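ok trying again, last paste got cut off:
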Amino acid sequence: MMDWTDRHCRLFHRQITRHTWLYTEMVTTGALLHGDVPRHLDFNEEEHPVALQLGGSEPDDLAKSARLGEQWGYDEINLNCGCPSERVQKGAFGACLMAEPKLVADCVKAMRDAVDIDVTVKHRIGIDDVESYDFVRDFVGTIADAGCKTFVVHARNAVLKGLSPKENREIPPLKYDYAYRLKKDFPALEILINGGIKTVAEIDLHLQHVDGVMLGREAYHNPFLMAGFDARYYSQLDGGLQPTRNAVIAVMVEYARAQLTAHGDGGKGLRLNSITRHMLGLMAGLPGARAFRQTLSDSKRLALGDPALLMEALSHTQLVTLE
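nice, full thing came through this time. structure:
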C-alpha cells in the first residue's frame, strides 16, 4: 500500500473503526536512516493501534529503524517480505527475502533485541514457480525460531520477473488453504490471512481457520465496510453507536482545516487533495457516489484549499435521509 496508507488515510480510517489495527505504508530503512524521519514517522495520536511497516534486509539498519519506530510511539514493527515491485527488488528486500529465510530470521532477531514492542512479518506463500507448501512452512518455521510470533500471510505467490505489482495481486492463484495449514502446523503462532478478501462473509469464513484477517485495497476503495468491525470483531462500540458517513465527513472537514492551517507556509503547505483523495470510496454503493467522487476530484476546486468542498460533495448524496 505504498503511497496509499499515509497518516491522512489512517486518520480517516480511524473515524470508521476505532479498534482495527492500522498499518503504515512500507517505509525503507534508507529513508529513515538517511532521510526526513519526522516526515516518515509522524502520525496522529488517534491512529493507535498502529504498526510501522519496514522494508529492508540489513539486520543492523532494521534494528535502528525499529528503535526509531518504538521511540515515535508505534505499537508494532512489521517487516515486509511480500512486496514484489522492481523498485523493492533492487533494494534486495520485500518478497525476494523469502529466498533467504535465515537472513530474515537474523533481521527479526536484531529488531526484537532492539525493541520491546512486537515484531511481525508479512510475506507471500512462495516466489516465482515455487509452489510447494513446504517452502512457506519452512520459511515460517525458521523465522518463528528467531522469536517472531505473528505472520501475515498474503496467500499468493510473488512472481518477481514478468508481472507488475498489480498483476501480482491478481494473476497468481489464491491458496488460502496454505494459510490454514500454517495455523494447524504452528498452533502457537498468530496467523493472519491477506489477499483478495472483500466481504464480511469472507472474513468470517477465514476466521474459522486463522487468527485474523488483513484487508488492503478493499478497505481503501470501500472503507465504510469497516464501520461494523468494532462491534462484530472487538465487541466494542464507542459511545454505543456505529459511526455514520455524515459524522466521518464532519470530523474530516475539521481535520483538513487544521492540517491546512498548520502547513500553510508559502507554497510548501499541504494540498487538500492529500487528504480528500483517500475518501473517494466513502460513498461506495450509495446513490450519488459518482457525484461525490467527481466533486472531490475537481482539480480547480481542490486548488482553492477549502475543506467545505467535502460538505458540497456530501450534498450530492442522499445520506441526509439514509442516515
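cool. The radius of gyration is 20 Å. Residues 245-322 form one domain.
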